[in-house]
Write a structure and sequence with these properties.
Layout: E1 4-10, H1 16-25, E2 33-39, H2 46-52, E3 58-61, H3 72-75, H4 78-81, E4 92-95, H5 97-105, E5 109-126, E6 141-153, E7 161-169, E8 172-180, E9 185-188, H6 200-214, H7 226-236, E10 257-262, H8 268-276, E11 282-285, E12 296-301, E13 307-312, E14 317-322, H9 330-338, E15 343-344, E16 349-352, H10 355-367, E17 382-387, E18 411-416, E19 418-423, E20 428-433, H11 440-451, E21 470-473, H12 477-492, E22 498-509, H13 515-525, E23 530-536, E24 547-553, E25 556-560, E26 565-567, E27 570-575, H14 582-589, H15 592-612, E28 616-626, E29 630-639, H16 649-656, E30 664-665, H17 667-682, E31 697-702, E32 707-711, E33 715-718, E34 725-733, H18 739-754
Parallel strand pairs: 1-2, 1-3, 3-4, 4-9
Antiparallel strand pairs: 5-6, 5-7, 7-8, 8-9, 10-20, 11-12, 11-23, 12-19, 13-14, 13-18, 14-16, 15-16, 17-18, 17-31, 19-20, 21-22, 22-30, 22-34, 23-24, 24-33, 25-26, 25-32, 26-29, 27-29, 28-29, 31-32
Bound molecules: ligand ISJ and glutamine (GLN).
Pathway: Cofactor biosynthesis; tetrahydrofolate biosynthesis; 4-aminobenzoate from chorismate: step 1/2
InterPro entries: ADC_synthase, Anth_synth_I-like, Anth_synth_I_N, Chorismate_C, Class_I_gatase-like, GATASE, PabB_fungal, TrpG/PapA_dom
Enzyme class: transferase
Length: 758
């Protein structure tokens, strides 16, 4: 059976693929549906789009930022589309921005709402005088999510606009759906694809029926010749989401050794072992175990065999060398980085590449290392490290600079052979090596611990030495207020629905303190499921530019195995204080402000997964989680059947960074507004306005194919071996936010790490 082909026009929104998959899901054996997605600026001239029309039976114009009144600057080709008489018999469904553009083309006005609704669920009431087939089999009232700053007005005297549904709120009665009288054009102001909307699938089914009756079920019109099929294929490729590597590549050999031991369930055991191992180590530990996170701790132990990959985004170079190579000097690395051409020395390789090719080369590096074995363990060895915020999509690196010391790395990953894993639930410890035998020093530390297991008490000091003072440069309240107002302005104009506004703080200690010493105090003070310690002294004679990272993050970004992918966005924060109880926090976290904040990111995360994978489910809807200093609202979204897809977890990581909880929605425009304007001025004094390591992710891509990455928040990092520590903190601003409330929330989050210096 030939499919109905739908052209989906995306306006760089973060809910696009929720709609696309909803359409595809309505496919049946008798009436298959196929969607091709383009951007609203894929064609600059409507004539180009018209040439493609014979390939399709219907168009869906999706939601998005911007205002149709601003014309093609905001909505691209959509402006011309609704004006073109050649489309008057062509079935079109507009959603939110698409709906507003459709009504605007008929002479209605589009104006700002007085009270804006982002991520709010309302009853949609059908206009009982006009029940159109698009609402066939609907109840008179149903619930749907609204994400809009603007709305359609002055439509009543426009004959071509037939109102089909309304809602009512503080703004009065608002148009929620309409049909264009003489054309098969429909539109809805609400979001049928949101996970909180009812009967969304029905709307699509009914729209497909409209298409079916337009093509009169004549399947012949659906046949495409070879040439047209090629054109369709090329059009699909205009949005290029190519997989990073081919997971079917077979590994040549699969040497690894794993030995297991019974140990205590106490999560402090991880740190006890770390204290015993004198060599360098990276830690991804749980210092707070709960039902669904923090079950595992991982200690990764780099050795002379370990390969270090460092990407410098601003100069588009990646260095590759061995961990603490005796023959590698800092000077040599600096000269090689300054050389224009790629460098291939025996002990150092410098590749000229941008971030896109960095991701692809990671795939090349890993594809022959992946063994489909011991997949029940999260990690058996593999790439471990940090990806900064600027490694994500839509973010730019600072412009290239001249340098005399090592530039600031944007990604740093080490291929680890030897590691220790501890499962705090089952009380099992595993020593793993990707070489042919387990390292002696590690085994000795483990044996030691097993023998003195009765006393797990750590006795780590919860304060830093008192002979050191700290100079702390915090965000300025006035600048914050200005940035907050800018956020409100962008949201009121309809450019963004939620903006994660973050600030940077710098701490300069009067003398250098070992990162490990600070880590110990932070972990004692702020236990968290994703406690991280990374000290990258990978070049022996480099003591000034060592990247150090200490984290107590509550937030998992992404975890994957060969079948599934899980994302756990946190959105919604309540400070813990004397009178605050979990009951009270839950009440606050379920108010429209926090609910909307979480729902927007939940729908965005569904979109990030749906972009690559068809089988996505919301596993947990807005649960309240308790941490040392805050209560947080958390949702869990999971994708299934990865093994049936051409994508793997690393693709999901690449395409969904930066984490939606750190950007806001829609992701593309919000990231651009933050980087080019809002945070550029707010944070200009630190990192030149870049977020750097903060807001990025830390974790691993294991040689057994698994991966797990946490969000870099409630953390601190130093590019210069602890001379300066940088801390980021922020929170999502919505139209319901108050400046005082957000400032207070930002300070609360900042304090969770900054407290060690105070
Ligand atoms: C931005 C931060 O946190 C993010 C913002 C949150 C919020 O807005 O409620 C919650 C968790 C994080 O995703 C931070 O801790 O700095
Ligand atoms: N979700 C949307 O499509 C929003 C449309 C428009 N930018 C508004 O804010 O009203």
């Amino acid at each position: 059976m030939k499919p109905n082909r739908i052209l989906f026009i995306d306006s760089y929104d973060s809910f696009t693929y929720n709609v696309v998959r909803l359409i595809e899901e309505q496919s049946t054996i008798d009436r298959p549906v196929e969607v091709t997605t383009i951007h609203n600026d894929t064609f600059s001239d409507i004539e180009e789009l018209i040439k493609y029309l014979p390939l399709f039976e219907g168009i869906v114009v999706g939601p998005g930022p911007g205002n149709p009144v601003h014309g093609s600057k905001d909505i691209g080709i959509i402006e011309s589309l609704f004006k073109d008489p050649r489309l008057s018999n062509f079935p079109v469904l507009g959603i939110c921005l698409g709906f507003q553009a459709m009504c605007y083309s008929q002479g209605a006005s589009v104006e700002e709402l007085s009270i804006i609704k982002h991520g709010q669920v309302y009853p949609i009431n059908l206009n009982t005088k006009n029940i159109d087939p698009i609402f066939k089999d609907y109840p008179e009232s149903f619930k749907s999510t609204r994400y809009h700053s603007l709305h359609v007005t002055n439509f009543k005297d426009k004959k071509s606009i037939i109102p089909l549904a309304y809602t009512e709120d503080e703004n009065g009665i608002l148009l929620m759906a309409a049909k264009i009288n003489s054309n098969p054009w429909y539109g809805v102001q609400y979001h049928p694809e949101s996970c909180c909307s009812e009967f969304g699938a029905k709307l699509i089914q009914n729209f497909l029926n409209v298409i079916y009756s337009t093509t009169k079920g004549d399947r012949d019109t659906l046949e495409l010749g070879k040439e047209d099929l090629n054109r369709l294929f090329d059009l699909k490729k205009t949005i290029n989401i190519s997989p990073i590597y081919d997971p079917s590549t077979k590994k040549a050999s699969d040497t690894f050794v794993i030995e297991s031991f019974d140990v205590s369930n106490d999560p402090q055991l991880t740190f006890k072992i770390c204290d015993k191992i004198k060599e360098d180590k990276f830690i991804m530990a749980s210092s707070a175990v709960s039902a669904d996170r923090g079950e595992w701790s991982i200690i990764a132990i780099p050795s002379k065999d370990s390969t270090v990959l460092t990407h410098y985004g601003s100069i588009e170079k990646t260095t590759i060398h061995k961990w603490q190579d005796d023959n590698l000097q800092l000077k040599q690395v600096l000269i090689a980085l300054k050389t224009e051409n790629p460098v291939h020395y025996e002990n150092l390789e410098v590749v000229n590449e941008n971030k896109e090719s960095f991701w692809n080369n990671l795939g090349e590096f890993m594809k022959e290392k992946i063994v489909k074995k011991r997949e029940e363990l999260p990690f058996i060895g593999g790439l471990v490290g940090i990806l900064g915020y600027e490694m994500g999509s839509y973010v730019n690196f600072n412009s290239p600079t001249t340098f005399d010391t090592l530039p600031k790395p944007d990604a740093k990953l080490v291929y680890i052979e030897n590691s220790i894993l501890i499962n705090h639930k089952t009380g099992k410890l595993y020593v793993c090596s990707l070489c042919d035998k387990l390292p002696k020093n590690v085994m000795e530390a483990v044996y030691d611990i097993i023998h003195e297991e009765d006393d797990i008490q750590l006795n780590w000091e919860d304060i830093l030495p008192n002979n050191i003072s700290y100079d702390i440069v915090m965000p300025n309240k006035k600048d914050y207020a200005e940035a907050f107002d800018k956020c409100q302005e962008f949201m009121h104009k309809g450019d963004s629905y939620e903006i994660c506004l973050t600030t940077q703080t710098m701490v300069t200690p009067s003398q250098r303190l070992p990162a490990w010493r600070i880590f110990k105090t932070l972990v004692t003070r702020n236990p968290a499921p994703f406690s991280g310690f990374f000290y990258f002294n990978d070049i022996l004679d480099n003591s000034d530019d060592v990247l150090s990272f200490i984290s107590t993050s509550p937030e998992r970004f992404l975890k994957w195995d060969s079948q599934t992918c899980e994302l756990r966005p946190i959105k919604g924060t309540v400070k813990k204080s004397g009178e605050m109880t979990v009951e009270k926090a839950t009440e606050i976290l379920k108010t429209p402000k926090e609910f909307g904040e979480n729902l927007m990111i939940l729908d965005l995360i569904r979109n990030d997964l749906y972009e690559l994978l068809p089988d996505v489910k919301v596993e947990e809807f807005m649960s309240v989680e308790e941490y040392k200093t805050v209560y947080q609202l958390v949702s869990v979204v999971k994708a299934y059947n990865l093994n049936k897809s051409m994508y793997t977890g690393i693709d999901v990581l690449k395409y969904s960074l930066p984490p939606g909880s750190m950007t806001g929605a829609p992701k593309k425009i919000t990231v651009e507004l933050l980087q080019d304007d809002i945070e550029k001025t707010l944070n200009k004094h630190i990192n030149n306005g870049s977020r750097g390591i903060y807001s990025g992710v830390t974790g691993y891509w294991s040689a057994n194919g698994n991966g797990d990455w946490s969000v870099n928040i409630r953390c601190m990092y130093s590019y210069d071996n602890g001379d300066h520590w940088k801390l980021g903190a922020g929170g999502a601003i919505t139209v319901l936010s108050t400046q005082e409330g957000e400032l207070d929330e930002m300070y609360t989050k900042l304090e969770s790490a900054l407290q060690v210096f105070m």
